[in-house]
Amino acid sequence: MNFGPGMVNAFVPGAVDLDPHEASMIERRQRLLGPAYRLFYERPIEVVRGEGVWLYDRDGKAYLDAYNNVASLGHCHPRVVDAICRQVATLATNTRYLHESVLIYAEQLLATMPSELGHLMFTCTGSDANDLAVRIARSFTGGEGVIVTETAYHGITKIVAEFSPSLGPSVDLGPHVRTVPAPDSYRSPTGDLATEFTVAVEAAIRDLRRHGIKPALFICDSIFSSDGVFGEQPGFLKGAVDAIRAAGGLYIADEVQPGFGRTGDAMWGFQRHGVIPDIVTLGKPMGNGFPVAGIVVRPEVIDEFGRKARYFNTFGGNAVAAEAARAVLSAIQDEDLMRNARMSGAYLKDGIKALAQRHDAIGDVRGAGLFVGVEIVSDRSTRTPDARTCTRIVNGLREAGVLISACGPSANVLKIRPPLVFTTENADFLIERLDRVMMST
């Protein structure tokens, strides 16, 4: 079996016995939707309802959702549901008409950003946002070169897929793309992540230039969510950001996953590193599942592009999307969810660290706020990645009523990323089930 990052948490036809209903649904899905889609878990789940941190299957079984950051406030948050229903019954139109909702939200969101970031542009998805960000960066710098980490994921449009190595070897990277190792705090040879990462980015810049390619941008998500979840040593990004700017390129902060308070330390992941991006890209959590995303950009970076290129997005920033996004941002602030991410996340991380005293397969526990990575190894002394055990744990937890996933270049890191409303009681449930599964793995 292929244990690459794209397969560790995927259904493989024929690998497990299915009941007639499951088999029928999967056959129907494949017949109607085609071969490119993937399902989570060795035994897929048919979900019929969601509420808060819980998902429910057709038999009424509850699953603790500790993975789905799209529903950043939890499933079917009443505040977001009410905002969407109220607005869709009133007006649903785009930003080529004047309507106030999009302006109110822009004011509120920009107030959470450094003052240097002055404009908000709307898209529908994070992929759209990163696509637009690249177009702007190329226009501003006159360059083409892109630097990303080795197992990064940034989206699925043609432009963005070319610098999303986690999509796998069948999706070619562009000739203008250079990859650098993620800042791996567990396997760092020196412990100095800042210097190691800066040196790697500088080497990538030199290699681009050697091949006649002018650097345009360095892009990363500051929690390195697909590379294995690395949140320790805040501040290590600064040297890499300085390097790309010295080369005439821009720093793009992909905040689709670390943003909106998830790290617990700040509203935006880049703020933990003391850097100010040229462009920030937003996505999944922005509307709690409603398709709204966007970019926040320095005015001087967008100025020429805005004068020369006409941009619009029929659904990006529509009135319903704006109200959904307003409800999410207001809930994060009013319900003090960034503090909850910090407190509940620390409690969860400490609980899993305690499990490491009983389970030798746990090599490292790391992350920030409600984004935790658990390194599964076959030998602690050599830190040997163990994708097979990781896969068994992920699927064992699914059977035990907890949903997580896995990531990393060796597909051996448990990826735990629950909604921002996740509590210490939820953490206790997850820790107890993880302990039980690991004892039987």
Description of the structure:
- The protein has 441 residues and is an alpha/beta fold.
- The chain folds into 2 domains: 20-76 and 337-440, Aspartate Aminotransferase, domain 1, CATH 3.90.1150; 78-334, 3-Layer(aba) Sandwich (Aspartate Aminotransferase, domain 2).
- Helix content is 36%, strand content 16%.
- It contains 12 helices and 16 strands.
- It has helices at residues 20-33, 78-88, 100-110, 126-141, 158-161, 193-210, 238-246, 299-308, 319-334, 337-355, 387-399, 424-440, and strands at residues 47-51, 54-57, 62-65, 119-123, 145-149, 177-180, 215-220, 250-254, 279-282, 293-297, 362-367, 372-379, 384-385, 402-403, 405-407, 413-416.
- The strands form 3 sheets. A 7-stranded mixed β-sheet has the order 4-10-9-8-7-5-6, sandwiched between helices.
- The longest helix is centred in the last third of the chain and has 19 residues, at 337-355.
- The two termini are 18 Å apart.
- Mean pLDDT is 95; it is low at 1-6.
Q: What are the defining features of this structure?
A:
441 residues, Aspartate Aminotransferase, domain 1, Aspartate Aminotransferase, domain 2, 2 domains, five-stranded antiparallel β-sheet, disordered N terminus, pyridoxal phosphate, Aspartate aminotransferase family protein
Percent helix, as a range, is 25-40%
At the first level of CATH, what is the class of the largest domain? Answer: Alpha Beta
H/E element order: HEEEHHEHEHEHEHEEEHHHEEEHEEEH
Let me know the CATH homologous superfamily of the largest domain: Type I PLP-dependent aspartate aminotransferase-like (Major domain)
For the biggest β-sheet, the strand order reads: 4-10-9-8-7-5-6
Beta content comes to 15-25%
Q: And the CATH topology of the largest domain?
A: Aspartate Aminotransferase, domain 2
Structural class assignment: alpha/beta
Number of helices: 12
Radius of gyration: 21 Å
> What is the straight-line distance between the termini?
18 Å
CATH architecture heading of the largest domain: 3-Layer(aba) Sandwich
Q: List how many beta strands DSSP finds.
A: 16
Average pLDDT metric: 95
Described by the principal axes of the CA atoms, the overall outline is globular
Count of distinct structural domains: 2
Which parts are unreliable, with pLDDT below 50 for 5 consecutive residues or more? 1-6
Pfam family, one: Aminotran_3
Keywords: Aminotransferase, Pyridoxal phosphate, Transferase
Cofactor: pyridoxal 5'-phosphate
GO molecular function: transaminase activity
